[in-house]
Amino acid sequence: MRRALSGFFFLAAAFGPAMAADRHVDPPCLSTGDTVEILGAHGVVNPSEALLHVRRAVPDSEVLRASLCRETDTLVYRIMLLTRDGRIVRVTVDAPSGKVVTIH
């Protein structure tokens, strides 16, 4: 049940107000409308698939925020996680492939 709720939270974060907040802090991030359009055109992996890769890379964590952003010449998911020990971890996922690029 926890994983199902976490997946739901991830999808809500990807399309909800957190994304708009990211757009103001980090201008390369896409608006909700642009994100939905890109997902509809199948230009990137589904957010839930990206989350699977993130969960493998950073187990036992909760998604705080997720955004689809432009980075150089590609799109990336920028995902912020909270680990069980209270650390904030930022993960960058290559949106076309779904592979984890960086963990900070």
Structure notes:
The protein has 104 residues and is an alpha+beta fold. The protein has one domain. It has four helices and four strands, in the order ααααββββ. It has helices at residues 2-15, 17-25, 32-40, 47-57, and strands at residues 61-71, 74-83, 88-94, 100-103. The chain has a four-stranded antiparallel β-sheet with strand order 1-2-3-4. A hairpin with a 4-residue loop joins strand 2 and strand 3 (88-94). The longest helix has 14 residues, at 2-15. The radius of gyration is 12 Å and the shape is elongated.
Secondary structure: elements and pairs:
Layout: H1 2-15, H2 17-25, H3 32-40, H4 47-57, E1 61-71, E2 74-83, E3 88-94, E4 100-103
Question: What key attributes describe this structure?
Answer:
single chain, 104 residues, alpha+beta, 4-stranded antiparallel β-sheet, 4 helices, 31% strand
Strand content: 25-35%
Poorly predicted segments: 1-10, 12-25
Structural class: alpha+beta
Strands side by side in the biggest sheet? 1-2-3-4
Kindly report the average pLDDT value: 80
Rg, alpha carbons: 12 Å
How many helix segments? 4
- Characterize the overall form: elongated
Extended strand count: 4
Roughly how many Å apart are the termini?
28 Å
Helix % is 40-55%
Overall tally of structural domains: 1
What's the story with the biggest beta sheet? Answer: 4 strands, antiparallel
Query: What's the helix-strand series?
Result: HHHHEEEE
